[in-house]
Design brief:
18 helices
Length: about 950
């Protein structure tokens, strides 16, 4: 068996739709023009790794020339074996240069996708998908995933911008339909199997054989102008997983993870989760195997496997030799171990004896009602006395953990003995990495485990790596194989400053009060996790940022705060990445994406997944985790960036308000904002040409393309001041808006972006708001929301009219001049010419005393509504509202309590005075252009229709692309 290759089964007679990969024919005979999982000229094997040989299975005859791999179901013609360079799943994890754990979704059903481990279709079975990259896996294949997610934070302290070269990150298979190779312009995808490669960063799709001809430097393709380069993102070395940093919540049930999954389960090469109590169908299969003279045997991978009762089933011939039996056991656990380094023992024998009989299967110990079982053991230790079997020396792999540009090798293999300690390994590795003058005391050796994710541990200088490996091997041979060692600087090159965002505290407390709350939770002195600095504090939101100089203290504080409550509310805590602005190329304006996952049903959740795959996940923020403030803090040092807000008008106002609060402390005080409308009204999005609402049909990459092409435009903003009369000041006004502030004299101040209403329109808005607050789960679609509006309007037609004769209850003054009002039931003050989900109350242009309005002219438009019927006619486009006035300073006197709304946030306002005046706050928005200016590249279908960038085709190098 060659290390790292596929274990080929013998030739079988294959037909279309076999379990290991569908054979496609194109008009000729199957043998002359067939496409297997990765074969022939159009669907050649992917080349994202070093070439490896293949495990050859035991031939059992057959006419066809398609031997499948016994471990990972890789199917290939005999004549195509020489072109296969993709690694088997048994060795793929060990070939990753920089392991990055995946961020798994909850178990879901995925169609028209293939598992990246076993290569079979995912239809009708539970599967997991990575929230960051295009990695799909059966739930039962999770143990064998390759930890090669997108490396989104690769900042190296010593590198300058000219020295940074971004590499392509190739992912095999599951390409978009009709994807074309960027090199030869031919189709490189298929829905029948894993074929072709796609770069996770630039989106290039290629045949595997063409990947080496693509220039090594990845330019991020179409999204380069808005991409946050991973080289500009710094993540301190902590044990906090990526999903905790980017806010991905682990929704997986306890029964699907950890030890709970292992109880009374059998893991087979044909399918998982077979109970020890045999089902009737299972007994039937057993009878069939008896007729074929085969035996089903349980295989435990070391002591840990036995303790958790996790094992796999292998089917072997009763006449199989020890070597064949061992090979089957290794394949069951996707292990590349040589036969000479492992052996099998009888799990049910009194002394767990090693299998040495020429026909070991028939000699296994049987227990009543149970299958025979064996242990897979490593030859470095005796399983009886647990003493070494004379194996006191070996080799370990040591990798440089981003030590800078001076290290030119990927890793080194060092000889070690039972006496070799960590200090010795560090000294040897420094010489191998051409750092002979470096002080070994400035470095750490880190134990890295790739089994089921990526876990790290800094080793003590006195530990002995070879002894550690042998101890791990007793518990699990696979875990030993998945272990490696990294040499890294003891001092974190990313800096010692680690920022934690803390939220869900009561708003508007003093700094001392917030400090006392956190001190009570974290403790003080040597026993506590006291932070080194405190602030900024976002008083209106009960949020702040605390900073640590010690990574260990930061991690302990992170988990302590995450499990803490205050006033019966769980605290929100996020570990924030650090953006290095000096490594953002000139001309690049990174896009800061905010997604309100609660808007538009499930569309927000789908969008945040899509944007994390297309962009750097560290530039995409879920507003459900702390709102806009964490993202704005992360981007505070970036000199020029854009914002994309995915949500309704209320979400846009929320983001603009937070920008007002943090703008003075940021390098870019007024970033331009684009919109993906997810709400019900989306009036500002309509005015800026972003559409009435995202329906999920448009490709997210087209949304990003529109943001790149959009043009800057100014949006007037207005301050709305509510002052309650002195005689009613003792009765506080109840508002629903969080966008306002209250002064000591009971004056409330709001910022208006779209419109302000008084009367019947605001009353209808308030009724809808109250209904949604009572049953929020029912208001999850635009169509339902609008139907509720209509029903409420019909009820208003026959109910008591609160706003009848409104013109008698208010007095209007525009630019210092009183305005006489006609009989009205509602007044609307417009900043934009869209209201009520796209209606234009101002109406079409006509010759009158008013100027043509827009949203940057410094003027507001005042219109009137005579009743519910008139309101409905305006929304249906049959009539316009009554034009009353235009001006830049509006004063309204309220003689009685009336319903009001500011940008869709309604409440009942007590008698008093309302003043609307131009705000000093600024907002720059992005307006969608009518025509596309960028040419699309002819790779993925969503980017088809343009010219392909000219690629300098390079000769095929000796080494292939890394995972």
């Amino acid at each position: 068996m060659g290390v790292g290759g596929h274990a080929w089964r013998g030739r079988d007679s294959w037909r279309q739709g076999n379990g290991y990969g569908t054979i496609l024919t194109t008009g000729g005979s199957r043998n002359t023009h067939s496409i297997t999982t990765r074969a022939n000229t159009s669907h050649v094997p992917p080349r994202h790794c070093l070439p490896r040989g293949h495990h050859n299975g035991v031939p059992d005859g057959g006419a066809a020339d398609l031997p499948p791999a016994a471990v990972c179901n890789f199917v290939c013609h005999d004549k195509c074996l020489k072109t296969v360079v993709s690694p088997c799943s048994s060795v793929a994890p060990t070939l990753v240069k920089t392991p990055v754990a995946h961020c798994w979704s909850e178990p879901i059903h995925v169609r028209r996708r293939h598992c990246n481990v076993c290569r079979k279709k995912l239809d009708d079975t539970l599967a997991l998908k990575c929230e960051v990259c295009e990695y799909f896996v059966h739930l039962d294949c999770e143990d064998f995933v390759v930890p090669n997610c997108k490396d989104c934070a690769i900042f190296i302290l010593d590198k300058t911008l000219p020295q940074v070269v971004q590499q392509h990150h190739w992912r095999e298979g599951n390409l978009p339909a009709n994807s074309k190779c960027v090199v030869d312009k031919k189709t490189c995808w298929t829905a029948e199997c894993l074929a072709g490669l796609r770069c996770e960063w630039c989106g290039y799709t290629v045949h595997a054989s063409c990947a080496s001809k693509v220039p090594q430097a990845c330019t991020f393709g179409l999204l380069e102008p808005i991409m946050l380069p991973p080289s500009a993102v710094s993540i301190p070395r902590t044990e906090v997983p990526m999903e905790a940093i980017i806010g991905v919540q682990n929704r997986r049930k306890d029964t699907l993870s950890g030890d709970s999954r292992s109880i009374s389960e059998e893991f087979t090469s044909e399918g998982y989760k077979m109970r020890e109590c045999e089902e009737p169908a299972m007994r039937e299969r057993s009878r069939d195997r008896d007729e074929k003279d085969e035996e089903v045997v349980k295989v435990f991978d070391g002591n840990s496997s036995l303790q958790r009762r996790m094992f796999r089933l292998v089917t072997v011939s009763r006449a199989a030799s020890v070597a064949e039996f061992l090979t089957a056991a290794l394949r069951a656990f996707h292990l590349p171990q040589e036969v000479t380094s492992t052996f099998l023992t009888d799990a049910y024998s009194a002394e767990e004896t090693e299998l040495t009989d020429p026909l070991p299967v028939s000699k296994l110990t049987r227990r009543e009602g149970k299958r025979p079982a064996v242990f897979l053991r490593y030859s470095g230790a005796c399983v009886v006395c647990r003493r070494e079997k004379g194996n006191d020396e070996g080799h370990i792999r040591v990798y440089p953990s981003r030590l800078g540009g001076t290290v030119g090798v990927e890793h080194t293999v060092l000889p070690v003995t039972s006496l070799t300690c960590v200090t010795d390994v560090i000294s040897l590795a420094l010489k191998k990495f051409d750092l002979p003058d470096a002080n070994p005391e400035d470095y750490h050796l880190v134990e890295v485990m790739l089994d089921k994710g990526v876990s790290e541990r800094v080793m003590e200088h006195g530990e002995k790596p070879w002894e550690l490996l042998k101890v791990v091997a007793r518990d699990s041979v696979r875990q030993m194989e998945m272990m490696r060692f990294y040499l890294q600087l003891a001092k974190d090159p990313h800096g010692s400053s680690i920022a934690l965002f803390v939220g869900n505290l009561p708003p508007n407390l003093s700094q001392r009060q917030y400090d006392n709350i956190l001190t009570d939770i974290l403790g003080n002195g040597e026993a506590g996790y006291k932070y080194s600095s405190f602030g900024p504090i976002y008083y209106e939101y009960g949020s702040m940022v605390i900073t640590y100089d010690d990574p260990d203290l930061a991690v302990r504080a992170f988990y302590t705060l995450r499990e803490s409550c205050y006033d019966d509310k769980n605290l929100l805590v996020m570990l924030l990445p650090n953006v290095q602005p000096q490594l953002i190329p000139e001309g690049v304006q990174p896009l800061l994406v905010f997604v309100n996952v609660k808007s538009g049903g499930c569309q927000g959740l789908e969008l945040i997944h899509s944007f994390r795959k297309l962009l750097n996940p560290y530039q995409v923020f879920d507003l459900d985790n702390g709102g806009p403030l964490p993202g704005l803090y992360v981007f505070r040092k970036v000199k020029s960036y854009k914002i994309l807000v995915c949500g309704g008008d209320g979400t846009i106002g929320w983001v603009l308000q937070c920008l007002d609060n943090v703008g003075q402390d940021s390098e870019c005080q007024h970033p331009a904002c684009a919109i993906v409308p997810l709400g019900t009204g989306n009036d500002l999005a309509r005015v800026l040409r972003w559409g009435p609402g995202y329906n999920g049909g448009e490709d997210p990459i087209n949304l990003l393309k529109d943001v790149i092409e959009a043009e800057d435009i100014r949006l007037d903003r207005w301050t709305v001041v509510f002052h309650v009369d002195e005689k009613v000041e003792d009765k506080p006004t109840q508002t629903n808006s969080t966008a306002g502030s209250t002064s000591e004299d009971n004056t409330q101040i709001f910022v208006m972006n779209n419109y302000f209403g008084i009367g019947i329109e605001a009353e209808l808005c308030l009724d809808f708001h109250n209904a949604r607050e009572e049953n929020p789960n029912k208001f999850n679609s635009r169509l339902h929301n609008k139907s509720v509006y209509v029903k409420m309007g019909l009820r208003k037609m026959v109910s008591r009219k609160l706003c009848k004769d409104l013109h008698k209850e208010i007095r209007l003054e525009v630019d210092g001049k009183p305005v006489e009002l006609p009989p009205l039931e509602g007044v609307i003050i417009l900043n934009i010419l869209s209201w009520g989900s796209g209606a234009n109350p101002w109406g079409p242009e006509k010759d009158d005393q008013f100027n043509k309005p827009n949203h940057w002219d410094g003027h507001l438009e005042v219109v009137g509504v005579t009743g519910i019927v008139h309101l409905g006619q305006i929304q249906s486009g049959l009539r316009s509202a009554i034009r009353i006035a235009q001006g830049g300073h509006i004063r309204i006197k309220l003689n009685s309590e009336l319903p009001v709304q500011v940008d869709g946030e309604p409440w009942n306002q007590a008698p008093g005075e309302v003043v609307v005046l131009k705000s000093a706050l600024k907002a720059t928005m992005l307006k969608k252009t009518s025509k596309s200016k960028l040419k699309r590249r002819n790779t993925e279908p969503s980017m088809a229709g343009g010219e392909v960038p000219r690629l300098e085709v390079r000769p095929d190098p000796a080494s292939s692309h890394p995972l």
